[in-house]
Specification:
- Helices cover 55% and strands 4% of the residues.
- The chain has 58 helices and twelve strands.
- The chain has an eight-stranded mixed beta sheet, with no helix packed on it.
- The radius of gyration is 39 Å and the shape is globular.
- 43% of the residues are buried.
- The N terminus and C terminus are likely disordered.
């Protein structure tokens, strides 16, 4: 009789509800069958068949039990509910879990632990795979409980029938024997820092029971087990070293006297054996002592235990000096201790420290009540300290060996939902670990949860959801795992279908399981290889997803076919879960695009072709439209969400007639909803319906829409719906975006419609524009009077809506322009009346200012719309009418400063000025009334031919603005005015300076990028000319050209753009306002340059932008005029001289700090704009040697304040940038070396100071330390790669600045953890490129690093190879390539040139010696790269191929092992194909690293990757976990 047969069904416990079919619990026999199974006696845990007489008490009983008849079946346990709890008995325990009198812990043999299929020593060995995973912590080997539950050393008890069973759970209560039990937790670390390492794969642990006794008699000492003691308050920890390692022996500590000692496997070849003292009473200060390996080096030792009260003081340390380790050789046939070689070793260099334990929450035999109390404090507590302490205590539960058993107790006996939630969360984390649990254990957990939720359908929703997540994770991670030629984890779908046959509650649970499984399959876990995720997701899509969708639709149809009682909460919940399931299916990432959900434009759903029949059935869409009309808003919004996905179905799924029919069904549904709009009063329904409308135009062309029979009526309904929505601006404002998107795309498509059917947009688009304008103006009064949130404060949303409206507004532009002129004149007159009345700030004034702000925004929007829609000269004249009014308003507002000012109007004016600049200023290619060929010389084009006179006609009459020169003067005057009077308003200053910066660039940046990118991809025949109305677009009329070569055309484009920029800048520098700024950039004229406390330090960032723009304007006519440069720098010179005086007098330190911060930001802006050698030399001569030491002193004094150090370090990093070869000084100039020396001093100073801060909290480590380190690394990288310093000169002349900065680099690096290097993006993007420079040009420095430092660097490279950031991974590949190439060349040169390059030979020899001592370093990186090539989405294949060839040539044997491992892990039919792929990889590749050979290997690697992907295109019979060369 098997254990599964002996298990009692849930119905025997009375827990299985009627009407619910039982879930299949059939599974293969457990490998750790008890000795009384019919399969015969169980082998020893470690796989050894040898025996040796045991001297421990209880061994005779164990031996007797082993001799029992193996054919005798055990008596069925007391109602165990599941197969995995068979064999688990109950001991009589007191309430505190201790044994009752007469049950000796010491005399009891321990039950044999369960073995993994690989023959490892029990659950603790299975997770680790027989290899120690973490440095300093031993691998877990051997359980401390019988089958994961029995107390260590617990005596077996007899059931009523006499069957002997192992001890029960230490936390078990009377009456728990029949409860379903989770399996023991393999790989669970024990509480405390010590556990025994698994010596090698297949080794086993020790324990009680017959098998363990049998193993100990044979002397097997490979495994380990520990006492189940618990640390308490007063515990101490001792760390030290053995005086000398004593080899492979057993050692004993006779001076320490615990109640029971265990055999522990320890690091290296040392095995410690603690023996009890001769006396029964412990006489020493230590009790419950245990020992483990030291973390520092071989021979290290750690002892941890509890100290008697009288010895809890750490003063008495002399006792430990007497602790000597006496070796005992374990010889066959002799007792322990009989053969002693006389050697000993003393514990030296020890440290005694208290163990940090929480006094309130001790993880010591916590009872159920204690755990529930902790859960309550964690989830509902209001005391932050109490919650933190509870969280710390509960975090230990996940890593404890009793995790599963305690989770079971919480689930079965917990009285609160929070305790059940904790158990479910622990299970979720346990099954999600990178090292998976054994397959049998995962099956057990899955079956347990299925039966648990089936027997308790009314669990709290959050508990039920978390438990279902556990099932989904187990299923996904084990999707390809096979047992007995079956995919054991795919049975979940069949099990769920049994739920669907039960009550409503069970049907809900089944649907939730399918929904959560679908979402989990679609969820990308970036901690695991992406190829594995895609393989699982693709298999799930092809085998199960369609069936799930069909099942969900049939369930929905069945529910809606019956009378629906909306008052029944269970029925509502069922419909909601079914709709969520359908939505999960439609949201599935079918092709692995991983589109950003926040980007709603990426909205095409790539439905598989096999689903085509489902979508072609009209009943499918009707089902969801009917659901919307029948269900309440909470559910109908889900139906609309499903319809959004149906509307987003890819066009290629249908033929043209089918697409027209499908679109017609969608339009009919839209019409039906709009004719009955009651449901749209719900905000969620309204939002989803707006998304639905936007998706219609995204996936279908306007020409297809107008062909639908219902189009005229539907477009009218949509227009009315949009107008109503815009008028109710306070209702769901975030949904307006989708409606404006719909109209924007429809209007933009008008020129491309070829159908003769009317589109009617010229009728409805002006109405939409009018509704938007009037609704926004009407909203102002409501906002002011009712004190509501002003939409104008959300500038991001305002800009987004205006950019969409600009296209719509240009349709029938005459109507829009007439409306705006009328409204603007009316409101401007009212505003002037209020100004003249002198009533001050009133409600009416606020309303008029808000309306004017909206009108200025709208005028700027329609003017900017000229770039997105076909325009005529009449439209340009209308733009002039509107612009004239805004310029008049600017004059009116500026004359009233500073008394009359309004921030919102100023921001709106800046928006208008920017839109006018983009449209009519600085870009003659856009402003010409006829096409100007790009090859023509712009300077020779008559000025009148590239000006649009129409736009300035009205402006010249009213304002005297006749051309863009006058417009530029207006721009600069407005900029100067804002900088004078708005210094305390950071939003206005920031936007004003950004506008100034755009003007100083000369040409619109977006046009430059778009034009060049398009030209590079367009081809020769498309490079003739650009459209006058669309920036960077092709002209609709092609003109003949004489030269169509791409290179010539691109050169002409570049010359034209450069000429245009120069012309615009020349115009700017002639303006009086610009001349004023160049001569008077002081705080007296521009208050935002001041240093008073009223200005925040964050506002100082604006100064960098200001000086960047100002310096660009200075550079136009600067040339080599040093006097002009000195005059420009005069305000900064005065500031630096003031700083010098204050530093010398130690006066007003705060003022000095703020002044230095401002100066650093100013100089950074200046340095950024100086891109020529002459101008940069002027700046360097001005700074050195007088003012750079001041910055050095600032770093020394305020290193604790990032607000000061960051600007200074960024200034230095900018000075080190050799942009446009500006640092290529003359051969007679030492400036390059002098600049590097100053940078070296600053980096060294900052490094030494910042390291003195010690450890920092997690929230402070980046701003206080890592940010500065990243800037230092960036500056050093710029210096090393700048090619303006000959670093060999430093060593030649005894200058240590280069060595110092490299040592500072090492010190800073060692203070940063590997995780932080990759976690903080700016740090990783500065460190890895710096490392690339060092490995390229300074390998001598790399090879001279100390072995631990070199190992740290190589480990950082290894971890960076798998980084998501391609900048990081590519830099790592390049750095590795340089190292491998250096090593390969050294090996190739060895012995050939003994008399040359002795130093280089020594450096190479050091590196070679290190690699020989650490061969796994390069092997690991080869595994990573091969894994990336074969299984990952390799985005930088060329970079990966370069170091891979060198690694293969250096480690041909290991490459052969990798090759064999991959091939053997595949089914036989695929092995030959894979073997051929590897042969082709090295075909034609020689044993050298020449460029030609590398290129050949790169080509082979590309073919290899494609062929392997084809060969591994699995039929699903290979375990996915084998597809990983990392293991």
């Amino acid at each position: 009789m098997t254990l599964a047969a002996a298990a009692v069904e849930p119905a025997a416990r009375g827990g299985w509800p009627s009407g619910v079919p039982r879930l299949s619990r059939s599974r293969p026999p457990r490998p750790n069958a008890t000795p009384t199974q019919p399969n015969g006696p169980a082998p020893p845990p470690c796989g050894h068949a040898h025996a040796r007489p045991s001297r421990r008490r209880g061994a005779a009983e164990a031996q007797s039990e082993r001799r029992r008849d193996p054919g005798r079946p055990p008596r069925a346990p007391l109602a165990p509910a599941f197969p995995w709890c068979s064999g688990l008995g109950r001991r009589r325990l007191r309430e505190d879990g201790a044994a009752l009198p007469g049950q000796s812990l010491r005399a009891a043999p321990r039950a044999a632990p369960p073995r993994s299929p690989s023959g490892s020593g029990g659950p603790a060995m299975e997770a680790g795979g027989g290899r120690r995973r973490r440095r300093g912590r031993a691998g877990r080997a051997g359980p401390r409980r019988a089958a994961g539950h029995g107390r260590a050393g617990s005596a077996p008890v007899r059931t009523a029938g006499g069957a002997r069973r192992a001890g029960g759970s230490p936390l078990a209560r009377p009456g728990l024997g029949g409860a379903p039990r989770l399996p023991a937790g393999p790989g669970q670390p024990a509480p405390g820092p010590f556990s025994a390492p698994a010596r090698r794969r297949g080794s086993a642990g020790t324990g009680g029971g017959p098998a363990a006794a049998h193993w100990r008699r044979r002397g097997g000492a490979r495994g380990a087990a520990r006492m189940g003691h618990v640390l308490e308050e007063g515990s101490l920890r001792v760390r030290g070293h053995l005086h000398r390692p004593l080899g492979k022996h057993l050692y004993r500590l006779p001076t320490v006297s615990p109640a029971l000692w265990e055999v522990l496997g320890v690091k290296s070849d040392i095995i410690l054996l603690f023996l009890p003292s001769e006396s029964s009473q412990a006489s020493g200060p230590w009790r419950n002592c245990r020992c483990g390996p030291g973390k520092e080096e071989r021979g290290g030792l750690e002892i941890e235990g509890q100290c008697e009260p009288k010895h809890r003081s750490v003063e008495d340390r002399g006792r430990l000096q007497k602790v000597r380790l006496e070796p005992q050789v374990l010889m066959k046939g002799k007792r322990l201790g009989e053969a002693v070689d006389g050697r000993s070793s003393q514990l030296i260099d020890y440290q005694v420290s208290p163990v940090s334990l929480c006094p309130k929450y001790k993880y010591s035999c916590q009872s159920l009540a204690e755990l529930e109390t902790l859960c309550t404090h964690l989830y509902t507590g209001t005391d932050l300290t109490q919650r933190i302490e509870a969280e710390k205590a509960l975090l230990e539960l996940i890593d404890s060996p009793e995790c599963l058993s305690k989770c079971q107790i919480l689930l079965e006996q917990g009285t609160t939902s929070y305790s059940q939630l904790l158990a479910a969360t622990c299970l979720s984390k346990l099954v999600s670990r990178i090292s998976p649990l054994p397959i049998e254990q995962r099956i057990d957990i899955r079956n347990y949860i299925l039966n648990y939720v089936a027997s308790r359908p009314k669990l709290a929703p959050f508990v039920l959801q978390t438990l279902i997540q556990v099932i989904a994770k187990i299923t996904k991670l084990g999707w390809f795992e096979v047992q007995k030629d079956q995919f054991v984890f795919r049975e979940i779908i069949a099990d769920v279908k049994k739920f669907l046959q039960g009550t409503v509650e069970h049907c809900i649970i089944g649907v939730m399981i399918l929904s959560e499984l679908t979402q989990e399959m679609n969820l990308v876990d970036y901690s695991r290889p992406s190829a594995k995720h895609r393989k699982i997701a693709t298999s799930f899509r092809d085998t199960s997803l369609k069936d799930i969708l069909v099942l969900a639709c049939s369930l929905l149809k069945e529910v809606l076919a019956k009378p629906l009682n909306l008052q029944d909460q269970s029925q509502q919940n069922l419909v909601m879960q079914v709709l969520k399931l359908v939505l999960s299916c439609l949201n599935f990432d079918f092709i692995g695009s991983s589109a950003d959900e926040s980007a709603d434009d990426l909205c095409t759903v790539q439905i598989p072709t096999t689903w085509r029949t489902i979508f072609l059935e009209p009943e499918t869409l009707d089902l969801f439209f009917n659901s919307y009309h029948l269900l309440p808003p909470l559910l109908s919004q889900l139906a609309l969400s499903c319809l959004v996905q149906f509307a987003s179905t890819r066009r290629s799924l249908f033929s043209s007639p089918e697409r027209a029919k499908y679109l017609g069904n969608l339009i009919k549904g839209v019409k039906r909803i709009l004719e009955n709009p009651q449901g749209l009063s719900d905000p969620s329904n309204y939002h989803e319906f707006c998304r639905f409308l936007a998706r219609l135009k995204t996936n279908y062309q306007l020409g297809e829409l107008v062909m639908v029979k219902e189009y005229p009526e539907v477009i009218r309904l949509i227009a009315n719906f949009t107008i109503t929505s815009l008028q109710h601006w306070e209702f769901a404002p975030n949904s307006v975006h989708y409606l404006l998107t719909l109209w924007q795309r429809m209007v933009a498509s008008v020129p491309f419609v070829k159908s003769t059917e009317p589109h009617l947009l010229d009728t409805y688009a002006p109405e939409i524009t009018k509704a938007f304008i009037t609704s926004r103006l009407d909203s102002v009064a409501v906002v002011v009077r009712d004190h509501l949130d002003d939409p104008l404060d959300d500038t991001a949303t305002v800009f987004q809506q205006l950019e969409q409206l600009c296209t719509v507004s240009r349709c029938e532009y005459e109507k829009t322009c007439t409306l705006l002129i009328q409204l603007f004149d009316q409101n401007a007159q009212n505003y002037q009346k209020l100004l003249h009345s002198g009533s001050g700030i009133t409600v009416d004034m606020s309303i008029q200012e808000g309306r004017l702000a909206w009108l200025v925004y709208l005028v700027g929007t329609v003017v900017g719309g000229r770039l997105t829609y076909t325009s005529t000269d009449e439209h340009d004249a209308m733009d002039g009418e509107l612009s004239c009014r805004v310029f008049q308003l600017i004059s009116l507002m500026d004359t009233g400063l500073p008394q009359c000012s309004n921030e919102k109007i100023e921001l709106a004016i800046l928006w208008f000025l920017d839109q006018f600049r983009k449209t009519y200023v600085g870009d003659q290619l856009q402003r010409t009334s006829k096409v100007v060929h790009l090859r023509s010389d712009v300077s020779r084009v008559p000025e009148k031919s590239w000006k649009i006179v129409k736009v300035y006609a009205r402006m010249s009459e009213v304002l005297g603005i006749t051309d863009d020169n006058h417009v530029l003067e207006t721009f600069m005057t407005k900029i100067v005015t804002n900088l004078k009077y708005w210094g305390r308003c950071e939003p206005v200053i920031s936007r004003t300076l950004q506008f100034l910066n755009d003007l100083s660039v000369g040409y619109p940046l977006h046009f430059l990028i778009g034009t060049l990118a398009w030209c590079l991809s367009a081809g020769a025949e498309c490079l003739q000319h650009l459209s006058p109305c669309n920036t960077g677009s092709l002209s609709s009329q092609k003109a003949p050209v004489t030269n169509t070569e791409p290179e010539s055309s691109l050169a002409c484009i570049g010359n034209s753009l450069t000429s245009t920029t120069y012309i615009l800048l020349k115009k700017l520098v002639k303006i009086d306002a610009v001349k004023f700024m160049l001569k008077n950039h002081t705080s007296e004229h521009f208050p935002f340059l001041g240093i008073s406390d009223s200005y925040s330090l964050s506002g100082f960032r604006c100064r960098t932008t200001f000086y960047t723009a100002l310096t660009r304007l200075l550079m136009v006519d600067l040339g080599e005029d040093e006097d002009e440069f000195e005059n420009f720098m005069l305000p900064l010179t005065v500031s630096f001289e003031t700083v010098l005086q204050i530093f010398n007098n130690n006066f007003k330190q705060e003022d000095v700090k703020r002044m230095l911060i401002g100066l650093a930001r100013d100089l950074r802006g200046i340095a950024f704009a100086l891109n020529t050698k002459t101008s940069y030399t002027m700046l360097f001569d001005w700074m050195y040697p007088t003012y750079l030491p001041i910055l050095q002193k600032a770093i020394e004094q305020w290193y604790r304040e990032p607000a000061c150090t960051t600007p200074v370090l960024k200034l230095m990093a900018e000075l080190m940038q050799n942009r446009s070869q500006r640092l290529n000084f003359d051969v007679s100039s030492p400036n390059g070396i002098l600049l590097f020396r100053e940078a070296s001093k600053m980096i060294c100073t900052y490094g030494n100071q910042i390291l003195s801060l010690g450890s920092l909290s997690k929230d402070q480590i980046y701003p206080m330390k890592l940010k500065g380190i990243s800037i230092c690394y960036s500056a050093l990288k710029s210096a090393l790669c700048g090619n303006y310093v000959s670093f060999g000169v430093f060593e030649l002349y005894g200058d240590n600045h280069f060595d110092n900065v490299l040592q500072a680099f090492v010190k800073l690096l060692l203070s940063v953890s590997h995780s932080d290097l990759l976690q903080y993006r700016k740090l990783s993007q500065s460190y890895y490129p710096l490392l690339e420079c060092l490995t390229q040009d300074h390998m001598g420095f790399i090879t001279n690093l100390e072995p631990p430092v070199l190992l740290y660097v190589l480990t950082s490279i290894s971890e960076g190879l798998t980084a998501i950031d391609t900048v990081v991974s590519s830099s790592c590949c390049t750095s590795l390539d340089y190292i491998v190439t250096y090593l390969f060349k050294h090996i190739a040169r060895e012995g050939k040139k003994p008399l040359r390059c002795r130093e280089a030979t020594q450096s190479g020899q050091r590196l070679l010696h290190f690699m020989q001592q650490n061969p796994d370093v390069l092997q690991q990186m080869m595994s990573v790269l091969m894994n990336t090539i074969v299984f990952e989405d390799c985005r930088n294949q060329w970079s990966v191929s370069r170091p891979l060839l060198g690694l293969i040539l250096l480690n041909e044997k290991y490459f052969g092992e990798l090759r064999a491992s991959l091939i053997n892990s595949q089914p036989l039919p695929k092995q030959e194909a894979l073997d051929q792929c590897f042969r082709n990889l090295m075909e034609g590749v020689e044993q050298n690293l020449s460029i030609k050979n590398r290129d050949r290997f790169t080509q082979n690697l590309s073919v290899f990757r494609r062929d392997v992907a084809e060969a591994l295109r699995s039929d699903g019979h290979a375990e996915l976990c084998s597809l990983d060369m990392m293991s």
